[in-house]
């Protein structure tokens, strides 16, 4: 088994330390973080000595020469930093979203393709919500056909992060520009990614229609308190995405729901709620006879990864997502298989949100979502399709 050295970039990359350290022959050998105190904390968390703690990205890439980087940096830096790494033959695990505009999407696809030809360096987007236990279980059951034909899903990310839009001195953070500095579903992958996967690895969004609630809570930003994105799928289904990063309320992780012809799932919304499931076939008797059961009554359908998770996995953030995503990427690099959320799947989750910015400006008009697998002559067809288990 070949050893893999890793560089962590930006303090959020520290979330992946336990997953990386659990793998044989994987060593975190460098970090990069411009802010001094965050750099020291990240170095300590990852067990990286001061000599391998860098303030600049070039210094990490050329000084530590890692085999792989984890990008936990502001959203608009993901693509330029990915390109820099891939050009040096370094694998990239990038935080969400994959890109902040359509030009960046094209740049990303071309860079990943070039790296695939020249060095074999790989790219994966770290959409950790796809690895949550409830999401993994419902996805597995949907793919076994237990919901019948799936035709409607919901994904909601409702998280009051107003305090992250400004620094203590009142100056704006990157979120003020890239998340709430414009209208639309600017941070949609946590909601859309898991919901899209319920429909299968080939499902993608064909058109997007986006409307907003208007600005009520924090008039400093043009971003709607709540934004709704309706996604029509190539499979014939519909996904409703809600993004709300403004409304004043308690946090309740993300919420998902799925409806098929023979089953229904509604996730938990917090405050002691239970994720619930009904599987009953297509009988036409009185609906009063139908009863929800706990999702956890169906654990026999859990894929291997969630059957006997390690302590590290259970302790990792986002319901284990931060752990499994790191291990899945390293396993993909070692096996030579396409990573489960490769560049095309990353853009399937990201591009609808970018198109939603145009739709909301056009009063909610449904707009087509480009497929970066077939965008133009300089973008080749993908060699292998990726698939989440
Ligand atoms: N998947 C998830 O659950 C999840 C959760 C939180 C954040 N995120 C994503 O993680 C990323 C970071 O978010 P955050 O909340 O930690 O932001 P943050 O602003 O709190 O931290 C960003 C860090 O990046 C550093 N940075 C800035 N420029 C850099 C550069 N050129 N090179 C290296 N580091 C640089 C900053 O000093 C800062 O410490 C974003 O893309 C966000 O979307 C994902």
TrEMBL record:
Q: Where is the Gfo/Idh/MocA-like oxidoreductase N-terminal domain?
A: 6-118
| Keyword Transport listed | no
Annotated GO molecular function terms are: hydrolase activity, acting on glycosyl bonds; nucleotide binding; oxidoreductase activity
> What Pfam families does its record include?
GFO_IDH_MocA (PF01408)
Output the InterPro entries linked to this UniProt entry.
Gfo/Idh/MocA-like_OxRdtase_N, Gfo/Idh/MocA_oxidrdct_glycsds, NAD(P)-bd_dom_sf
Alphabetical list of Gene3D superfamilies matching this protein: Dihydrodipicolinate Reductase, domain 2, NAD(P)-binding Rossmann-like Domain
Annotated keywords: Oxidoreductase
What protein does this entry describe? GH109
Q: Which organism is it from?
A: uncultured Chloroflexota bacterium
